[in-house]
Amino acid sequence: MLQVLIADDEARICRLIDALTDWNILNMKVVGFASNGSEALELIDQKKPDIVITDIQMPGVSGLELIRQGRQLMPNLEFVIISGYAHFEYAQTAIQYGVGDYLLKPIQKEELMRTLQKMRIRCLARREQDSLAIRQRQQSLYDADRLRESLVRELLGHPDLRLSQEQLERDYHMHAPSGYGVFLLQIDFDLQQFSERAADVVRDKTADLIGRIVRPLCLDLVFSFASTLGCGVCALRDSYTDALRQALREVLSQLNAQKSLYGEVDFSIASGTCLCAEDIETTLLRAKNALAERLVEGTGRLFEHVPSASKFSDRGLLTEYTRAISLALPTLDRVKAEQAAQELRDNAMAVRRVCGRELLELITTAGNWFIMSLDIDSKERLQNEFVQECMQCGQASRLFELLINMQNTLLKVLAHTRKSEENRPIRKVKQYIQKHYAESLALEDVSSLAGFSASYFSALFKRETGQGFTEYLAFVRMEHAKDLLRDTGLPVAEICRSVGYKDPKHFTRLFSHVTGLTPGEFRKIYG
Known about the structure:
By secondary structure, the protein is an alpha/beta fold.
């Protein structure tokens, strides 16, 4: 039998908790009451309880200090804190301390019993973890739950799942004669600032809320989280579409009311309905696209509609970004890279009626391209981490901040690496070309700079860069020619000489070959 200690400076609260709880059903007993933190610590040392229910605000030793010192006495001791809305900041700190759960005043019997049942499961799992029979029973329950939750994982991980009604009934035991409701619940927070334990508490409380408010409206409900994205599929009762919408609004309302408890966190929900299992994936995709609208409309909302695409793709924003980054990377110029990201931001946000999904795709594509362009290890891991951070964003401005921060971080790492290693000959030559492109450059000149024979250097340059020396030199010169055509009124002949060519006709032919336009046409379009 598990032992429980109740600590509160108000005796009536202690009596209320004792009276509301069906201790025999939970197989628990109360071993003591404490009116302050010091008394509670003495009882913890004497009685060795499994669970402590404590007010967050008490005289003497506060609830927070009680948790800290109590854990020193008993590292596995489970704490449930009692908090009023006025004391959210203390409850938030308690969550960071590793508190198991919390109760809000006024205390409700259903919530109290559900919380203690959760604590009971944790305590028993820890106490009996070495028992093979218990482990087998827990594994059986775990497998049953995972089988159901695997529906969510399959839907989120395989957009081309092609789910059928037969498969849904056979594998997941779900049937909905009146159709299905599909919804996504996104929790947005800074991954670097939120502990995993705190994230678990938020996910647990959110799932409890979904179960309490949404489940009664459904014939069946499967809900689970994949990281911070929760996905629910429910079998609807007849004519319950509006009721589901209202239930989701109530979930969102309660989450928004309590979000200050957790710190810097935001919640958003997107939903949709369909008549048959075969349409669940399409409905889920619409919900994902609708959820992305929080980037431009703000978090804390229920999203049900997907706006039409803007003229976003016609602007060539990604092309301009990659061009600017290509010029910044050889010298690891963080200033130019940041300017490229800022211009991408300004141009993207200037697009009329730009959609959230368009911004998300733009930034993830730009970030992935940037990472792939670097001479750095673990590119796939870095790309996955960047995309995950982007998915956590609830504001468009934060998306662009992530891109800039990622660029600066990786460029700093590369700059440090370059300082600590010998200058690589190819990099040295590329930097030389960037500075001396307007001069007469021959393969023999740059190969001697690198310390190799012309034939060996030519092969090495091709292998390292994917371009021949002449091709790369022409690329650099053409990029600078584009800038001069776009930003100045210099005659073409003068631009030709400025980028290292003597014959304007040869320059024009080469420029046309590279860009598909004559210099004059390019200036008319982009100047």
